[in-house]
Design brief:
Number of helices: 7
Strand order of the largest sheet: 11-10-9-21-22-23-24
Low-confidence stretches: 3-52
Oligomer: single chain
Largest sheet: 7 strands, mixed
Strand content: 15-25%
Radius of gyration: 23 Å
Number of domains: 2
């Protein structure tokens, strides 16, 4: 795994958060106990004795499930967080303000007959009783299972996978990517359907939770809009108690990056959506980033330091794939001319950057160094052009890469100049499935230089709708746009040395639980061939129809802009 130099020691309490850093290059983070213990062989039992300082709770404290993440050839991170009452108003899950010592195990089998690693880790109240164990010393390219224990309480078991060795070229990788799970908007059925596929890897591309208050169809957020550490912790507790989300975490290791709703809709760097909130926004960001770390299976390189958190990173899957995981919120220039779709000359200023100049340089260096068959950018906002005006005037989203065209040009030119073999951009944010070709010059489209696959939301936007043609109205004057549907779901992929196959998986309804998933469309990207090749087109089954009329083009456009501007917040 290619990570940045780690950052400062963990503060022991939220009140000790430090001021903003001038740069991201910092000293080694310390203070997270990994508890990794190498064993000579044989089975090792988890220590069932409670901590001497903390009596074991009577009720089950593993109500938020388990998770793994950031796989490497020799290991991965395993995570859990103790909570007796996930939505307790103090944000601490109803746990006493004391430290608990958890046992953990990693085994080669689901029954834990062959335990190969075991240890203990402290779950401290200052970190909302979350733990992040960095397990090492494992074999590359294989499955493992893990679990935790506190006294007589045993957590659910999770499945994790180590990545292949650096010189290996595996025959296949199964990877799914997801985005935008809004709790009140519907049930997280798509997470469960993804879990049933048991992929090798899951990418979460942002909007894991939503900060807004209010009710939805069938479910409601607990508490007001999240602006404090207590509020964000409570909100994560509510989300992570969802059984479908827990199933997706337990099924495979995740590579998680955020978008805006983990903090505030459409924020940019240190600028909030509402100008009036600017004086206190970094305090809010500090709280949000800390809660994000506490609730994600991240390595210690991502321990937050005040309002800063190192999140962008590179994960290698042998010689098959590089995953360049981007953070397009923390370092971006503010949106030009405000949010929304606009014709804005200021957006083209070459000094402006979406990922920030340092992250851009890191990404371009990764392209130059790449020897992988596939280079995949896991990121948040639409990369290709979507002009919503069929006239000569160009009207595009100021929050997406369209609003930062010089930055997009540098990134695209970077992979072209580096000779990247198969560049593919993976995107979330927009609450609909899209497939798009990528060009160097969208004003004069010529040779296709890459592909973009965009996942719909898990629930954001509520029940969606389909187009029998698989085309958005904007495709008529945006030749890069190849496919669209407004149904909810995720993208499931199979990556081999010869091709990448992407299946746009959909559920017909999210306002009632248990819907079956189906593949709406399938595209293939052949090794060394620029552009998408469609191999399946499966309209919504009649048995799953919502029995609603097909929306007009005007309604489709209005829905698209509303969802992206307001984010279902």
């Amino acid at each position: 795994m290619d990570t940045h130099p780690p950052a400062p020691a963990i503060p022991t309490d939220a009140s000790s958060a430090t001021p903003a850093r001038p740069t991201r290059r910092t000293v080694l983070r310390t203070g997270l106990a990994t508890g990794a213990v190498a064993l000579a062989g044989g089975s090792v039992l988890l220590d069932s004795r409670p901590s001497a300082a903390a009596p074991t709770p009577t009720a089950d404290p593993f109500t938020l499930g388990v998770a793994s993440g950031d796989p490497a050839p020799d290991g991965f991170v395993i995570w859990t967080r103790l909570a007796l009452d996930p939505i307790a108003s103090d944000g601490l899950g109803g746990m006493p303000s004391t430290t608990y010592q958890l046992g953990w195990q990693v085994a080669t089998d689901e029954r834990f007959a062959d335990v190969v690693k075991a240890g203990s880790v402290a779950a401290e109240p200052g970190w909302a009783h979350s733990v992040h164990v960095e397990v090492g010393g494992l074999r590359p390219g294989r499955e493992y299972w893990y679990r935790f224990r506190l006294g007589r309480h045993l957590s659910p078991a999770g499945r994790a996978v180590t990545s292949p060795g650096a010189l290996e070229l595996p025959s296949a990788l199964t990877m799914a990517f997801v985005s935008c799970s809004n709790f009140p908007a519907g049930y997280f059925t798509a997470y469960d359907r993804l879990a049933q596929e048991r992929p090798d890897l899951v990418l979460h591309l942002g909007d894991y939770q939503y900060e807004g208050a209010g009710n939805g169809v069938g479910r409601a957020h607990v508490g007001p809009e999240t602006t404090t550490l207590v509020g964000y912790r409570q909100r994560y507790g509510q989300y992570k108690s969802d059984p479908d989300l827990q199933a997706a975490h337990a099924a495979a290791p995740w590579l998680a990056v955020w978008d805006d709703h983990e903090v505030d809709n459409n924020y940019a760097g240190d600028t909030p959506e509402k100008v009036a909130e600017k004086p206190t926004f970094l305090q809010r960001r500090t709280a949000a980033y800390r809660a994000y770390y506490e609730n994600m299976p991240l390595r210690r390189t991502s321990v937050p330091n005040g309002p800063n958190l190192d999140l962008y990173r590179r994960v290698r899957w042998g010689r098959l794939a590089n995953f360049h995981m981007l953070d397009t919120r923390q370092f971006r220039s503010d949106q030009a001319c405000g949010d929304g779709y606009k014709d804005c000359a200021d957006a083209a200023d070459p000094a402006r950057s979406l990922p920030g100049t340092e992250q851009e340089a890191w990404l371009l260096d990764g392209f130059r160094r790449s020897e992988a068959r596939w280079d995949l950018l896991g990121q948040q906002v639409f990369f290709g052009r979507r002009d919503n005006d069929p006239t000569a005037r160009t009207t595009v989203s100021m929050d997406a890469w369209d609003g930062y065209p010089a930055s997009r040009q540098r990134v695209t030119q970077g992979w072209v100049d580096a000779g990247v073999r198969n560049p593919v951009v993976l995107t979330g944010d927009v609450h609909a499935h899209w497939a798009s070709d990528l060009y160097l010059d969208y004003d004069n489209p010529g040779e296709v230089v890459g592909s973009e696959l965009v996942t719909s939301s898990i629930t954001s936007g509520g029940n969606g709708y389909d187009s029998p043609t698989g085309q958005h109205p904007w495709a008529a004057w945006n030749p890069n746009l190849r496919f669209w549907t407004n149904l909810r779901g995720y993208v499931s992929t199979t990556i081999t040395p010869d091709a990448m196959t992407a299946r746009f998986r959909c559920v017909p309804v999210v306002t009632t639980p248990g819907a079956e998933a189906f593949t709406r469309a399938e595209f293939v990207i052949d090794d060394g061939v620029r552009g998408l090749r469609q191999t399946a087109d499966n309209p919504l089954p009649a048995s799953a129809s919502l029995r609603r009329s097909t929306p007009t083009d005007e309604q489709v456009v209005a829905d698209t802009i509303r969802e992206e501007t307001h984010g279902s917040d």
